[in-house]
Give the backbone structure.
Amino acid sequence: MIRHASTGLLSRSIATGVQHRHFSSTEVPAADELFMMAWKRIMPNLDPPKTPLSFVRPRPSSISAADIASKLTVNLVSPYSEFSNREVDMVVVPATTGQMGILPGHMASISELKPGVLSIHDGDDVKKYFISSGFAFIHSNSVADIMATEAVPIEQVDPASVQKWLVEFTQKLSSASTDLEKAEAQIGVDVLVALNSAL
Amino acid sequence: MAALRREGRRFAAPLISNNPIKPFRSSFAPAEEQALLGVRSISTQIVRNRMKSVRNIQKITKAMKMVAASKLRAIQTKAENSRGLWQPFTALLGDTPSVDVKKNVIVTISSDKGLCGGINSTSVKISRGIRKLNSGPDQESKYVILGEKAKVQLVRDSKNDIELIITELQKNPLNYTQVSVLADDILKNVEYDALRIVFNKFQSVVSFLPTTATVLSPEVVEKEAESGGKLGELDSYEIEGGETKSEVLQNLTEFQFSCVMFNAVLENACSEQGARMSAMDSSSRNAGEMLDRLTLTYNRTRQASITTELIEIISGASALEG
């Protein structure tokens, strides 16, 4: 059933002459055809539910390798806030493998993030945010999505309370008895050390 | 019109009996007088009582509407801020509600309190529809229910298929930590190949769209990526961090689930408040109309009884004269 859907979509995309990318703005299907048809067959009296596909915001279309955008489009999202579609020069993210710099034309990748400082460079203007882990998707059309569970501008972090909590958590770590307590204390220490070094 | 007829019938009944209305003897003086005279007219007391209760209902529903409006304002900003959270996931992994898997888990989100219009019934109908859609020979669907209202409806016919029931979600203001703990709970206790979250998306104060979001388990994501189709490009992404691709994929799908759940719960809460606002608004408007009709009936009754008294006095006087 999925093969049919894929061949159907592929033939449509070949006809329009654009490479098949399901998140390019030129040919995002507004709804999943197969789902709509199956729903109409089974529940003809009820309108089919909408899917996230109908609410997706358009994204810049994919570009071939020769034609790299000059600026990186960055979306920084967290459960409580979002900064979308900002055109910047470079973003440095704290990936689990170390600080990773993202420039326009970066290869497509998915990376896990560890607690640390995210900095957004736009010309001479550098904005720093502290993020507590998340994911970063880099698409081949120079769009970077950074999803963090918490993203706080570094100016809002209070150094005194960071020190206090760091001392407390190191204490907890040394006095932890069960594995669970040790893990919790370790997480706390990691985040606070990163915060500390960022200030 | 039917209401008027019903009221008319109710008031006609005392007219038919010739006995005084006993219940009212003990209560109010004006009613006693009328009862002593014999039942020649409908007691205005009944109409007056009814008007009092309808007026109270109107006040209560108006107050409920104000409360719902203020709650909606508070939670709407949160919901709009959380809308960006699931966009990157849909951009990367697509949304495949037509995916064909063995174990489907339908997460139905509903409200705990009632008086909010038809949104909970629509969610339940959609969940049942999705279940029917995915009822193949070796497919099974289970329910995870959030909220009392869906539980009451689904327990009636699918009691054995319900895995988890979670209520009193909104006791404390909604935040991401609470929802992620909930998502963790669900992921740990339920075996799934695809999670289908059913909720009402808040489009505007008068419009709520039933929506379903699909989250696949890491194994299914890998399978779909290999077989091409919508997730075909996933392999072109280089995975950084974590030891193996499957570990990163697992973290990714868990994170996706908690993000989508957070947005879904917020949107459903907004829809609930919006639906309650419009339900209470129409209810207070109906109460106002009923009050108007009752006032007319009351005035007619009062004037009729005055006229009757006058007629008696005048006929008595004219009989005396000659």
